[in-house]
Specification:
Length: 169
């Protein structure tokens, strides 16, 4: 575990690890001291923003300014809080919708499987034989042939009646 450290001109350190990978390490003196720390809002601030959010999830500039003065916060903090809250609400809504849709999808899948099973075990009510979905059972074929014959007979009678009456029906 040999690591070579060489000082650079800009107060950064270059480190060689055992695999000869070079990485830069910032010295604590060179890190910016003016960075703002993460700030948690007070319970009062959050409660007030929650109240306003339920009324209107989008504040205009005037409302943001008034709220920032009221709560002692910057306008940008309020803007970002509302933006984050909208994103959070959208995520919760989408999660709820996804859960509902998954459950609905599962119900439909189970129903589809049951229907498929019942179709594979279906039998003709007229003859009692198992129905092959690719084939029509004998009773249905007979009904279709009878239907075609009756249609032809209706056409023939309509033509005869039209000749007898002298006009088309």
């Amino acid at each position: 575990m040999n690591s070579n450290v060489s000082e650079g001109d800009d107060a950064s350190s270059f480190v060689n690890d055992e695999n000869d990978n070079i990485s830069i390490c910032e010295n604590s003196e060179t890190q910016p001291q003016n960075r703002k720390r993460h700030h948690r809002h007070s319970a009062h601030q959050i409660q007030r923003m929650e109240e306003l959010f339920t009324d209107s999830p989008h504040l205009d500039k005037k409302q943001r300014r008034e709220l920032s003065e009221e709560l002692g916060m910057e306008e940008l903090q309020i803007k970002f809080w509302f933006q984050n809250k909208r994103t959070q609400m959208k995520g919760k809504y989408e999660h709820k919708q996804n859960t509902y849709l998954r459950a609905e999808n599962e119900k439909l899948r189970e129903e589809n499987l049951k229907l498929g099973e019942s179709l594979s075990n279906a039998c003709c009510l007229a003859c009692g034989k198992m129905i092959d979905l690719g084939d029509l059972c004998q009773g249905e074929r007979r009904l279709r042939m009878e239907n075609a014959r009756l249609i032809e007979e209706i056409d023939r009678i309509t033509t005869l009646a039209a000749k007898y009456i002298g006009r088309s029906l």
